[in-house]
Amino acid sequence: MSEIPQAGIFALGTASHAYLELDLREGADPRELVTRLADLREPRTTIGGVNLVTGLRPELWRDHVGAPAPPDLHGFDEPVAGPDGFTMPATQHDAVLWLAGAAYDVVFDEARGAIAALAPIAQVAVETSSWPYRHDRDLTGFIDGTENPSLARAPEIALIPPGEPGAGGSVLLLQRWAHDVEAWEALPVAAQQAAMGRTKDDSTELEPKPGNSHVARTDQDDFGHIFRRNMPYGTVTAHGTMFVGFSADQAPLARMLDNMAGLGGPRDELTFYTTPETGAYYFVPAISALRAFATEPDED
Predict the structure, then answer these.
(1) What's the CATH code of the domain at 136?
(2) Verdict on whether the full-model pTM lies above 0.85
(3) Is 104 a member of any domain?
(4) What are the DSSP E strand ranges found in 180-249?
(5) Is residue 296 part of a domain?
(6) Contact of 248 with 165, CB cutoff 8 Å
(7) How far is CA 45 from CA 155, 163, 259, 295, in A?
(8) Residue 69, in any domain of the structure
(9) Domain span at residue 116?
(10) CB hemisphere CA count around 175 (13 angstroms)
(11) What's phi and psi for 113, nearest 5 deg?
């Protein structure tokens, strides 16, 4: 029987999001953390229509807990540095909770409940709240996710196939990118489009596309296909994009970051107007793999 993935990976259309990255407390047992995370999968976390996606630092899940995951999967432990000094920081944590729902009040309440349940064993290191902007645009004003696969095809891209270690799970790359709003908005639309590699109104790919454009440096036909769930975050005066990328394999995600940083080609022009503040990889196990650690037996 195929492993069932965490449903929230593919639950599009939610309006409010919270990302909680957590670290184990000193001396805490990693297995106890996994048990408490597994217990959050009980029905109380879905009251009010909240989706919960749980991920673990790959080494914690595979090496410390002994659960199956790809053998070469690793955390974001070293920064990605380009030849000109541009750097994507490594801010790896032990676990992540991504909560998404129709309204922020229910996300807020469920997030507080989850934090309280985990408090004896782990503490929140980074918290970010997100919300949609003009339906499907990021805060540059451009449509985001144009190359995303359809939901019918997304599982074959995002999920580890049956028979492989960690089957039904996914590799998550989570990054927070702050926008230099003044610099970006000072550009004429033509310059913004050249940096992005697409038109601003309808997301048509430029022909020819500039070699240093975001589209060119993140061309999935080159580095491999991924499933993105990006969201805007922040306030009126300080905001940006939460990059939320899922893949069955870490390699496409890593190659994308290398391309953007200018390793093996020009640096992504968009990175002159956005700054990565965080970077972490998490393994998002299948529901059955996670629930195997729950306090109460699974009755499904």
Answers:
(1) 3.30.70.3420
(2) yes
(3) yes
(4) 227-228, 231-234, 239-247
(5) no
(6) no
(7) 23, 30, 38, 15
(8) yes
(9) 8-291
(10) 25
(11) -65, -40
